[in-house]
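Project standup — Tuesday

K.O.: blocked on the structure for the chain from last sprint. Re-posting the sequence here as requested.
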Amino acid sequence: MNVAALLHELSEESKRRSYILRYEILDQTTNLIKARLFISPDLFIQVYRNDRYDSTNYSLIHNQTRIFGRDQLSQVWHRHTVDAPEAHDKSADGRKAVNLADFLDEIEIILAALNLP
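H.V.: unblocked you, prediction finished:
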């Protein structure tokens, strides 16, 4: 994955998933993108990619706090679970590589379980 591919995926997934109200690009260069996919005013998904450092971060933010996330640095992934969002889950499932669509699939399950919009 790179910034250009992620930018395309942001647009496509925003159109495909009705619960995403809109997305905003917060920062973008040829090597970096930071964006938010808004579900409600206090619930959004933050997406970050830096090609220079081979780093990707996906986070579900509710009331200004990360409640779930997946991070990648140099092809090594870890997860921040709903039960322990401050901890790094490096189990086999936690290390699973995901793209934005995969992460949004996980988010849908989490939103339903937490009864969030």
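K.O.: great, moving the ticket to review. The mean pLDDT is 97. Helices lie at 3-16, 100-113.
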